[in-house]
Amino acid sequence: MDRKQRTVLCVGAVLMALALLFPPYHYCGANGISAGAGHSFLLSDPTGGPPAAKIDPNAWAITMLGVAVVTAIAWFAFYQRREPIINRVRIRRESVGGKMQ
Known about the structure:
- This protein is α+β, with helices and mostly antiparallel strands.
- It is built from 3 helices and 3 strands; from the N terminus they run αβββαα.
- The two termini are 31 Å apart.
């Protein structure tokens, strides 16, 4: 894993932490009608009183899944395949003048 991949994983971890700390909320009306209430800190009430908003677990799971997928795609985008160690040793020995058997 090189520096770019570590950076991608760190950014992904920060985004995942933010997604965990600020879940999406929705209002549940008396008629069964629900409306999005946006994102708010996990330990606070987003409305400050009635009507009470609840955490929307489906939207929260989709958000976390989206962060994980984008992080994985970015990590693989920066993936660089390295030569096998035996090839690197062979090239190093040949450049010094030694023979590889």
